Amino acid sequence: MKLTVKTSLSLILGVCLGVVLSAFIYWGYLKPQNESVQRDQQRQYERQLARQKNNYQLAINRLENGNDPSLAKTVNRLTSAQTMQLQALLKANHFSGTALLYRDDQVVYQRGYGYADYHRKRKNNYKSLYQWASIQKSITAVLVMQQVTQGKLKLSNKLSQFYPKVPGSKQITLRQMLNMRSGLSMTAQSSTFSNQDRKIVDFAVDHVQFDAHQLNTSNYQPVNYTLLAGILEQVTHKTYYDLVDQQIFKPLHLMNTGFMPTFAEEAHHTVSYTSQKKNPSSYAEPIVITPVTYNRELGTGNLYSTPGDLLKIQKAILAGKFISKPALEILRNTSGGHYGGGVYNYADHIYSHGLISGYEATLYLTKDGKNGVVLMSNRYKYDVTPKKAQAFVNQIYQLLTISSNQEGQ
Predict the structure, then answer these.
(1) What percentage of the chain exceeds 70 in pLDDT?
(2) What are 210's strand-pairing partners?
(3) Most buried residue among 16, 75, 203, 359 by CB atoms closer than 10 A?
């Protein structure tokens, strides 16, 4: 069939109109729609990327700010006024060690003061290691309570079930030992090193005395916790070292905590010094720590760590990491500052303090684990007493509280 010129022109015109219309639809509607979708997708991608960057930065900030206290470095987020007050307090106390202040679940201040090793001119810092001394009892108590929750022990168990040779053991319960109300005390300290825990406990059993008039009366005696360490080994068939390592150290992935036999091998270990009345800031008299000194402190004071690791462990205890919170309340059943379950318990905080061979460790921590002070020293003041140590850390905590209130105004 032949197409007429008119028909051909109509077809050509129709095709052209179709092309124009298609172009109009594409450029006027479809392309903008596609571009709009692409822009939306681009914006969504950018928002996701921004969220990821923000989450990443928050994670970095948490580490830098000390959300995990064991990772915190030297830091100062106090105001200039609070910093000056804090440093004045530490200077007046001739403090040599590391001070860590914790507020709103973050390390807000950490700094070393004085020398870790004066002979080598190595200064204290956030990596410095110190002995825990008696603060270790808080761990021993938690391990005992673990066995209670597993049904292997009862707080009402009599000491005679484990060490019948101990005088008065038929009258003494584990609860009384945990709360330093057993009436027990030592007549002598061991002067012989032993690499067997059983021999350390046996020495305690052979040299412990019982005062019936002191039963149910508060009387701080470390032998209670040496015997508790021995009981733990009996019921678990593990050494105290293995229990602490498996139940405390490894779950928290601690890198700066250990037992005293390895202390001197650590690059950041500190040397302890005698504080002199005539010159309290002197480093003239380093203390020689013999193996016997820490060896006999089984369960009572032969751990070391950084302040950050100490705080991490204590926070984990309060958070129910090792025993449930209800079990912890049963363990720490005292109040009003009375000793119970390895610490001194108050309505809103716990307190613990230890002295050994020139080292001093002090802990103040609110029961929610969010605010506190850790002081670890390698030269405690010549006139230190438990009351003075507690008053000192209370002053620093009040400074931390004032700082928080002022920032909130």
Answers:
(1) 82
(2) 184
(3) 359
Residues 6+ positions from 310 with CB-CB distance below 8 Å: 132, 135, 257, 361, 363, 374, 376
The number of helices, as runs of H, and strands, as runs of E, in the chain is 13, 15
Residues 348 and 356: beta-carbon distance below 8 Å:
no
**Amino acid at position 383, single letter:** D
Predicted structure pTM score: 0.83
φ, ψ of residue 363 to 5 degrees: the values are -130, 130
* DSSP state letters, 81-133: HHHHHHHHHHHHTT--EEEEEEETTEEEEEEEESEEETTTTEEP-TT-BEE-G
- Would the pLDDT of 18 be above 90? no
Domain ranges across the chain: 73-408
Q: What percentage of the chain exceeds 90 in pLDDT?
A: 78
Q: Residue type at 247?
A: Q
CA 230 to chain centre: 25
Closest CA to 131 of 360, 313, 326: 360
Residues 73-408: name the CATH superfamily: DD-peptidase/beta-lactamase superfamily (3.40.710.10)
The pLDDT mean for the chain works out to 89
Measured distance CA(311)–CA(252) in Å, rounded: 12
Res. 195 pLDDT band, cuts 50 70 90: confident
Distance of alpha carbon 317 from alpha carbon 324, whole angstroms: 9
